[in-house]
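Translate sequence into structure tokens.
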Amino acid sequence: MNLAYDDLGTGRPVLLVHGHPFDRSMWRPQATHLAERGHCVVTPDLRGYGESPTRDTATGLDVFAADLIALADHLGLDRFVLGGLSMGGQIAMQLVADHPGRVEALLLADTFAGLDTPEAKQARVDTAARITEEGMERYAEELLPKMISKQTRATRPDVEAHVRRMMRNAPKEGAAAALRGRAERPDYTPTLSRIDVPTLVVVGREDEFTPVGEAELIHREIRTSTLVVIEGAGHLPNLERETEFDEALSTFLKNSGATR
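Result follows.
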């Protein structure tokens, strides 16, 4: 198993998938919260991120999904709760489609199901080339104002510092490979109606990358879903408003039966 990961607690397994360009520390508040409430929380670094190596030049979301299944098999997890934020949410949608029967409940946070516009697709390819050449620092500083809300930046310097650190420390080769692979991802919208497990859709009210309308679309298509909009948060409500996010997730897990 080539993925670096943490597992915390005992009980019903919850596998949480970080977004781009982050690492498993993104889920630290949720791992602690859920472990204290009877869950075994597994938080991996995706291939090419954090402490997980890669030699890929392009990493498809199907490859990330297969890695997660391999990790679950390694840990003896036949069925598990799966959560993902942003790119992690797209990987979760890919995994549910590719590996039916493995996921018993689903969290889709600040993500979107559709395809990029041609311009956005090209921007991913161009950004991959750019960060391969110059590294992550300038890219991270450009992303930061869009990652978290103005309110968070004004009141939570700890969150801003954590987000900046994750982005600046992301391995440039892995981040570039993911951008290239993500540009070629399929449209997940047609698959949403086939998702039949309890699903929590969460989005920050101020999210610029995946606006509330994208979450509402996912919620409409997944008949077993619940939608929660977190006020005052941008693209990372699990860090910006962790109390509200944790409460929504705990309530969902309890109500969906995914607890012991």
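Note: The longest strand covers residues 103-109.
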